[in-house]
Amino acid sequence: MTVRTQRHRGVPGVRAYKKRRTRLALIDAALDLFLEHGYETTTVDAVAAAVGVSQRTFFRYFPNKDEVVLTPFGELGAAITEALRARPAQEPPLAALHAAARTALTAHCGTGGPASVERFAKVQWVLRDNPALAARQLFRAAGVDRALVAGVLDRRAEDPEAPLRAELTARVFAAAFRVALQTWADRPPATLEGLLSDLDRTMALVAVREPSDQGTASASGAGDPRAITGESP
């Protein structure tokens, strides 16, 4: 063992870098194999072999194949939730969610992390070709949806209809966000600019003229579904 190896073995930053590199290599290899050979037929052994590591090493990073595909979603969802907390308190909830998503996408998809734009596009393609896996992703996304509901509720806690508004607003956003992702992935090349553009277009259809005042809907708007999320006609 060289002096240099001994020195690096004790440096936390070097160890963290190697772990991150191995984790990303496993994600990249898995996504490529899933797209080329199919998700169901690709084994953990095949993914590990493509990276030059053992099956045991694979399981140090991921408990199963699902997690390789779903990890980018989980990290992006957490980033959106965190960005929502940083938005101005008086900003309309849908506008705040839109801005938070833009911030998270720019930060995560613009880097080399698990949710980089290339990886995120491949994840969408794998999910598109595997309905059962896509269903598991939606089940997992329910946890992110609940976190977004809580984030919206914190912004309008004084509103007597706040729980209902928060639930509907977060779910409208989540649906629009997923449609934007699907639209973007189905129209290559996959770029961050294209993803942000599709998000903007989708949100424009559900958040037009949303007012800053999210007070209780007036009687005249009682029959208008836009009154639920606070949108004006």
TrEMBL record:
- Region: Disordered; residue ranges are 209-233
Record Gene3D superfamilies: Tetracycline Repressor, domain 2
Top-rank taxon, per record: Bacteria
Pfam families to which the protein is assigned, alphabetical? TetR_N
The answer, when asked if Transcription regulation is one of the entry's keywords, is yes
| Segments forming domain HTH tetR-type | 20-80
SUPFAM superfamilies, per the entry = Homeodomain-like
Q: What is this protein called?
A: TetR family transcriptional regulator
Q: Which residues carry the record's DNA-binding region feature?
A: 43-62
The record's GO molecular-function terms, alphabetically, read: DNA-binding transcription factor activity; transcription cis-regulatory region binding
Keywords in alphabetical order: DNA-binding, Transcription, Transcription regulation
Q: Which organism is it from?
A: Allonocardiopsis opalescens
